[in-house]
Amino acid sequence: MPLAATALVAAGGLVASLAAGCSDGAGAAPKITTTARAGIAPTPPAKGAYFGAWVPPAVRGAATRTPSSTASGDASGTASGTPSDTSPGTSPGKDADKPGMAPVAAFERDMGRQLDIVQSYRGWKSDFPSGLDTSVLNSNRYLLLTWAGADTKEIAEGKYDALIRARAKAIKATGKPVFLRWSRDMDRTSVKDRVHSPADFIAAWKRLRQIFTAEKVDNVAWVWCPTARGFGASNAGAFYPGDDQVDWICADAPPGADYEYRDMSESLKLFMQWARGRHKPIMIAEFGVPKSYGQRRAEWLRAATKALEDPQVKAVVYFDSDEQAEDARDKRRAYSVTGDTHAVSALRELATTPYFNPRNLPVTSGG
């Protein structure tokens, strides 16, 4: 299905909307709307959800991923405003020689398909696009640019206007659709010193959007992303800037290191209840199954597949990394599936399920 057909344009092309149906076990989702411009900024697929991942860059001297599939083929992109479908008969892997793309291509071979979304993390003062960013933008994958935050009061007061304007111009200059996830996990107590309060965060968010609007940056979809856990004891919803300020609502949803075992449906439950009141597509931008789950990792991933087949969920991004682990013995914060045959197979099943392949990208057989 051509990606251009995955969004319906209304109100002079400024608002994309689509009616979400129901899937087995999922409640009715609201009609989905976004301020992003179809064909210019990322918009949700009409059916199903994009599949993406964060794959850390290769570390010199470290062991490299050994793909479970040896298939290779074309993954080149086009110059149009949205990623195009891969031609029949092609398969992921060719972009491995592009800057930053070797680990991504290896992960794609494990998954048996090309990613829809590749995530990239950038610091508040870091320049972008990076080499990886440019490689993704020049392919037929979406870039999910996760941009760190700064002191919200200083942003709202205008201290960083020049920096924000420079980043806005840089994104505009790419001419490609970009997911922008700014200051994720703003509800965590560990960042309270710079986030201050929900009101301060919202003021800073609006300042960014005002500058991007002034610079006429139309190729960005704004992704608001607290933690799923924040909808429990704390009030993550208080940080929501408003439907007119957000294109995608999002949550980071690792099971939590304080649980021996926890299904993804439990991790997402309170967030999904809150999200039903928003007419927005949902992105799960960081999810992963801990290595501490051992032989139950595959079981967890298969249950997660069912939980994520929700009509409002339009993008899922696996966190294929161990970087959050405190040390080599910390398996509760290690999520990479590399070397775990059963986990790779189960994640591959998720990735190649039609619901998570809305562009009908070619699927390769297991190796």
Automatic annotation (TrEMBL):
Positions the record marks as coiled coil are none
Q: Which keywords fit this entry according to its UniProt record? A: Glycosidase, Hydrolase, Signal
GO molecular function (one): mannan endo-1,4-beta-mannosidase activity
- Sequence ranges of Low complexity compositional bias: 66-93
Is the keyword Signal assigned to this protein? yes
Which range is the signal sequence, renumbered to this chain?
A: 1-28
GO biological process: one example = substituted mannan metabolic process
- Region of interest (Disordered), residue spans: 61-101
Q: Which family does it belong to?
A: Belongs to the glycosyl hydrolase 26 family.
Q: Which named protein is this? A: GH26 domain-containing protein
Task: Give the organism the record lists.
Answer: Actinomadura verrucosospora
Organism placement in taxonomy:
Bacteria, Bacillati, Actinomycetota, Actinomycetes, Streptosporangiales
